[in-house]
Design brief:
Low-confidence stretches: none
Radius of gyration: 17 Å
Helix content: 40-55%
CATH class: Alpha Beta
């Protein structure tokens, strides 16, 4: 293991789906002895709760009214991250295609973003954490010690995600990714975008280990500068 990062360091890793955010973030956190937070899982969790409780996903007002109701708890061990909703393990249910297809609509509601952002900031407050998402460096943790924005070509991202989903229809997966990118990048509240001081890393032609080594090196450089 590399020498541990400063106990209070905060690393923000943003980017669209299929760029390797989760795998990279968990590996970096494990290698540097840091906690890990998957913020996308939190948005999936609140979306799953909305669906399960019959909230009309096409009614932003209904979503806003229910945003404070579910209790969402995130475990931050990179080796075994957990997420519960009202005490129930939600790690499996939040990854269904139904939730995936509705998470952008729920995430776009300002009251939802306010609620989840508060949870994220509370978890990150103690530092010593790698936080991955889509608006971490721009909105949630603008003062993070290191901001990384992962990118990859649409074709590579679709192939990766299709493999994860055991789905042979790469073209359909790519179309869904492009559609979600458009929705997340154009929303009024905390859109998906690269922070001005973020380091962009194109993962298209890199192995996971190469990306992890790159980020670990960047953390080390920040430590030296600090």
């Amino acid at each position: 293991m590399e020498s541990a990062a400063p106990a209070t360091v905060i690393v923000a890793i943003d980017g669209p789906s299929g760029t390797g955010k989760s795998s990279t973030s968990k590996a970096v956190a494990a290698e540097l002895g840091l906690r890990y937070l998957d913020t996308g899982a939190q948005y999936r969790a609140i979306t799953w709760w909305m669906v399960t409780n019959g909230i009309d996903i096409d009614d932003p007002a209904a979503i806003a009214a229910a945003a404070d109701k579910p209790e969402i708890v995130s475990g931050t061990d990179p080796a075994a991250p957990t997420i519960t909703v009202d005490g129930q393990d939600a790690a499996g249910p939040i990854r269904t295609q139904e939730v995936t297809s509705k998470v952008s609509a729920v995430s776009a509601v300002p009251e939802v973003r306010t609620r989840i952002t508060e949870l994220q900031r509370a978890i990150a407050a103690a530092g010593g954490i790698v936080v991955e998402g889509r608006d971490i460096g721009t909105t949630v943790l603008p003062d993070a010690d290191l901001k990384v924005f992962l990118t990859a070509s649409p074709e590579v991202r679709a192939a990766r995600r299709s493999g994860e989903l055991k789905n042979s229809d790469v073209a359909a997966t790519q179309a869904a990714l492009v559609q979600r990118d458009a929705a997340d990048s154009s929303r009024k509240t905390s859109p998906l975008k690269k922070a001005g001081d973020a380091v962009e890393v194109d993962t298209s032609d890199l192995t996971l280990q190469q990306v992890v080594e790159c980020v670990v090196t960047l953390v080390g450089e920040k430590r030296v500068v600090a």
